[in-house]
């Protein structure tokens, strides 16, 4: 059965995270980060992370109102109608299409998002200070949008408060270090399973904390390497810097989109299992 195959694929994907053992460097890094933030004033720390969370919330809301996003939404519906002419809105996608059909449509969005990240990273690799300064905010925006499009494809309206929070939680989990992603996945599953109000998020709305900062630190190292190699020019172009920027941004988007795809696939299976149980009870 298709459902069993997808569930098996998700489980095998999760196994690589469940069996992951952090190396000595990662353990030393965790201790250093925790010690550094332990010495900070709690009020300063709270304000810092609350402002960071607020930026993500505002970014999500901004993206929902852009024409770029509306065009992508209509494109998703158009492809969905190829499989079922009865589709009228986003929520019809998960009711009328199979998980394989939805995954196929989502893969189109993912391929486009990865291409954009690759191109944007390569452009950043040319070494201009303006591009370097805009690189990280742009990468966050592009990856939040990628999660939104995958969620839309699987029939979830991203402008609802609950779905907005879930998609941001997915984005946050996907950008965590590998050793922390299983715990974030389990928290997401708990939230989805206990959801009683489809439009209201009742869980913890905090996104970022000390453990998430590894991603911005990696970004700093990437920028340093780009600056270091931008003078290594071949045929008028800094190919090493371009390669570093392109690969780094592509790798992050691949990590985010893989996580988001597995999450929404598994959520689809959970929703349909729930519908089957409800149907059997009524019969």
What characteristics describe this protein?
283 residues, mainly alpha, 11 helices, 77% helix, globular, disordered C terminus
What does this molecule look like?
The protein is an all-alpha fold and 283 residues long. Helix content is 77%, strand content 0%. The chain has one domain (2-9, 53-273). The protein has helices at residues 2-18, 24-38, 42-64, 67-83, 91-96, 99-124, 129-153, 161-174, 181-194, 214-229, 239-282. It starts with a helix and ends with a helix. The model is unreliable at 276-283 (pLDDT under 50).
Q: What portion of residues is helical? A: over 70%
Radius of gyration: 20 Å
Taking the sheet with the most strands, its summary is: none
Number of domains: 1
Which class do the helix and strand fractions yield?
Answer: mainly alpha
Topology, pairings included?
Elements: H1 2-18, H2 24-38, H3 42-64, H4 67-83, H5 91-96, H6 99-124, H7 129-153, H8 161-174, H9 181-194, H10 214-229, H11 239-282
Helix pairs in contact: 1-11, 3-7, 4-6, 4-7, 6-7, 6-11, 7-8, 7-11, 8-9, 8-11, 10-11
């Amino acid at each position: 059965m298709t459902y069993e195959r997808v569930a098996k694929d998700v489980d095998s994907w999760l196994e690589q995270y469940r069996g992951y053992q952090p190396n000595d460097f990662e353990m030393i890094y965790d201790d250093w980060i925790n010690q550094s933030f332990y010495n900070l004033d709690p009020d300063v720390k709270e304000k810092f992370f609350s402002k960071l969370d607020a930026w993500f919330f505002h970014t999500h809301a901004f993206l929902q109102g852009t024409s770029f996003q509306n065009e992508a939404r209509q494109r998703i519906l158009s492809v969905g109608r190829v499989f079922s002419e009865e589709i009228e809105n986003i929520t019809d996608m998960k009711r009328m299409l199979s998980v394989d059909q939805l995954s196929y449509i989502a893969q189109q969005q993912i391929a486009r998002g990865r291409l954009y990240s690759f191109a944007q990273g390569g452009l950043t690799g040319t070494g201009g200070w303006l591009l370097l300064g805009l690189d990280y905010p742009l990468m966050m925006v592009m990856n939040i949008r990628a999660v939104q499009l995958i969620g839309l494809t699987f029939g979830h309206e991203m402008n609802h408060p609950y779905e907005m929070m879930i998609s941001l939680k997915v984005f946050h989990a996907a950008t965590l270090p590998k050793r922390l992603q299983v715990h974030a996945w389990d928290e997401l599953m708990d939230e989805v399973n206990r959801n009683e109000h489809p439009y209201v998020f009742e869980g913890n709305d905090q996104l970022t904390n000390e453990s998430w900062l590894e991603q911005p630190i990696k970004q700093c190292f990437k920028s340093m390497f780009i600056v270091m190699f931008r003078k290594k020019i071949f045929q008028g172009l800094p190919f090493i810097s371009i390669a570093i920027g392109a690969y780094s941004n592509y790798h992050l988007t691949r990590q985010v989109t893989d996580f988001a795809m597995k999450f929404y696939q598994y959520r689809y299976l959970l929703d349909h299992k729930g519908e089957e149980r409800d149907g059997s009870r009524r019969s």
